[in-house]
Design brief:
116 residues; alpha+beta; two-stranded antiparallel sheet; 5 helices; 2 strands; binds zinc ion
Length: 116
Amino acid sequence: MKYMCPVCGYRELTDPPEDYEICPCCGTEFGYDDATFTHEELRRRWLRAGAPWFDYTTPPPANWNPNTQLYEAGYGYTLMGQEADSRVSSSSWPMSLARQGRGISWRLVSLEDQAA
Ligand SMILES: [Zn+2]
């Protein structure tokens, strides 16, 4: 049985996200970090940090991509490229991922951050 992280959408947790289980992807310690912050807040912090892979003793899945992971988990983030005109909506996400393959670098922003 695998569990999904409610912060980053990582689907390979071996234990439920509780009782001090630590997500190897985003580093959230459940029962500790999420006692102080909501999952939404923790997700935003992880994104602001650049959505890094947390646990160096656990390798990320092959072809791991935090953008894809968040999208597939249904978390409402959009991608924004470095260029202003490459701002995209989540509905055009598959296209965005294709463009990523052409060497455009991305950062993740929340809808809230975009509005600011
Ligand atoms: Zn996580």
